[in-house]
Write a structure and sequence with these properties.
The chain is mostly beta strands and about 325 residues long. About 5% of the residues lie in helices and about 45% in strands.
Length: about 325
C-alpha cells in the first residue's frame, strides 16, 4: 500500500505529466529524486535578472530580480508578486530563524539584512578597506555564521576593461568578524553546506569541478578538493571552457543539486553523478520550497520554473 506522502506525490506528478508536448523538458527517472516524465513547469518568463531563491516560511518562494532591484515572491499556487522594492541589487539570499532576510548586494556592494525594512543593517561592506566587487551567493550556518562568495570582475560588452578581479570566499562569524577564506578560485559562485555542516561546497563557474572544503571549529576551511566533475564542462564563446556552475541546493539525503551548463546536475552525498534535469534555458540558481519542501524551484535567464520531486529539502533550512 502506498504511503500518504508517496500517493500525494504520485497524483502531483501525474498532473505535471499529462499533456506534455514533445518539446517540453521532462524529468529523467532518478531513484529517490525524480519520477521520469514529469514536466518542468514554467511559472513565468521575462524577469530582469533571476537569482537567489530561498523557501519562505509560508511555503512560498522568494528570489531576487537583481537588475530590477527587487525581491519577488512565488506563492504556492504559482502567483507572482513583488515582495520587496529597492533591494540594493540583492543577489543571493539567506534567512534567519527570526525571519530576517540577509542578502549579498550588488549596487552598493555589501552583505546585510534587507528585510524587515526597519531592521536593515550592514554586516560587511569591505575586506581590510577593499570594497567587494560582485557579492554573489551566501549560505547561513545553524550557528549564525555566514559564508559568501565574491565572483570578482569580468569583461562584458558594457565594460570590456574592468578593474583587476580579486574573487574570494568569505566568512562572517556569529560574532560579526569577517574572514577571507579563499582567493584561489577563478570564479566562485554558488555556495552551500553539507547537512552536518562539516563540509563547505563552492561552485567554480570557470572550473570543471564542484569544490569541497573541511570546516574547522572556528569556521575556517581547509583541505580543498574536487568533490565532483560536472557534465556541464564545455567550450563556449571565444573557445573558453566553463562548467557554468552557479547556484547549489541540498536535499534531506545530502544530495547536491547544481545549476550548470547541462541543466540541474544531481550528485550523491559522495559526489557521484545521478542524473541531469534539463531546462529550456540555462539555470542560475535553485531552492526547495513548499509545504513539504518537495518542489524544486529554479531560476535563470529571466525565467522561473517549478519541478515536483520525490526528494525533499532540509526542513530547517531556507534552501
Amino acid at each position: 500500500m502506498l504511503s500518504k506522502n508517496v500517493l500525494a506525490f504520485s497524483i502531483s506528478a501525474l498532473l505535471f505529466t499529462v499533456g506534455a508536448r514533445a518539446d517540453e523538458p521532462v524529468t529523467p527517472a532518478i531513484p529517490g529524486v525524480a519520477v521520469g516524465g514529469v514536466v518542468v513547469d514554467v511559472i513565468k518568463e521575462g524577469f530582469n535578472g533571476t537569482e537567489g531563491p530561498i523557501g519562505y516560511s509560508d511555503g512560498s518562494l522568494l528570489f531576487t530580480e537583481t537588475n530590477a532591484n527587487k525581491i519577488i515572491r512565488i506563492a504556492p499556487d504559482g502567483g507572482v508578486s513583488t515582495f520587496l522594492e529597492n533591494s540594493n541589487g540583492a543577489n543571493g539570499l539567506a534567512m534567519t530563524p527570526e525571519g530576517e532576510i540577509i542578502a549579498v548586494q550588488t549596487k552598493d556592494t555589501q552583505v546585510g539584512v534587507v528585510y524587515p525594512v526597519k531592521q536593515k543593517k550592514v554586516l560587511a561592506k569591505d575586506y581590510q578597506g577593499v570594497k567587494f566587487q560582485r557579492p554573489n551567493d551566501l549560505v547561513r550556518a545553524s550557528n549564525g555564521g555566514l559564508y559568501f562568495t565574491d565572483s570578482g570582475t569580468r569583461p562584458s560588452k558594457e565594460n570590456p576593461n574592468p578593474e583587476p578581479s580579486h574573487p574570494g570566499v568569505f566568512y562572517i562569524s556569529p560574532g560579526g568578524d569577517l574572514k577571507q577564506l579563499a582567493i584561489d578560485i577563478e570564479r566562485p559562485n554558488g555556495i552551500s553546506l553539507s547537512k552536518d555542516e562539516k563540509t563547505l561546497f563552492v561552485a567554480n563557474t570557470d572550473g570543471e569541478h564542484i569544490l569541497a572544503y573541511d570546516i574547522a571549529a572556528d569556521g575556517s576551511i581547509q583541505n580543498r578538493r574536487n568533490f565532483a566533475k560536472l557534465e556541464g564542462w564545455k567550450k563556449g564563446e571565444g573557445d573558453k571552457w566553463s562548467s557554468g556552475a552557479d547556484g547549489l541546493a541540498l536535499d534531506d539525503e545530502g544530495r547536491l543539486y547544481v545549476a550548470s551548463n547541462a541543466g540541474i546536475e544531481v550528485l550523491s552525498a559522495k559526489g557521484e553523478a545521478l542524473g541531469v534535469i534539463p531546462l529550456p534555458k540555462k539555470p542560475q540558481n535553485l531552492a526547495f520550497a513548499g509545504a513539504g519542501k518537495n518542489q524544486l524551484y529554479v531560476v535563470g535567464r529571466g525565467s522561473a520554473y517549478r519541478i515536483p520531486l520525490l526528494a525533499h529539502g532540509i526542513s530547517s533550512r531556507a534552501k
